[in-house]
Amino acid sequence: VSNQGKTEEVTVLKGIGYKCDEEAIRVIRLLQYEPAHNRGMKVRSNMRTSVRFRLPVRHATSIQYTTTSASRPVEKKAGIVHHYTITLNPSEKKS
Known about the structure:
Layout: H1 20-30, E1 36-38, E2 41-43, E3 63-67, E4 84-88
Antiparallel strand pairs: 1-2, 3-4
């Protein structure tokens, strides 16, 4: 931390990878600290800060499949055609 309270050199001590280290560095650089004082003078100092990452809670997804069939035989051309209706969480409102 500089004598003005800004973060200068950021180092990851125990990283987990997967771009989390880079994100932790980015967030730490945004922080502003109260400068340390020594005999009334603002001085540079070192700090350790922990950054914890949490994955979002996953909710169960209900899936409903329905198929329809033609009432009379249809002449099939190249390829197979299937008709599906898929509804995801029909009763759940988005928040």
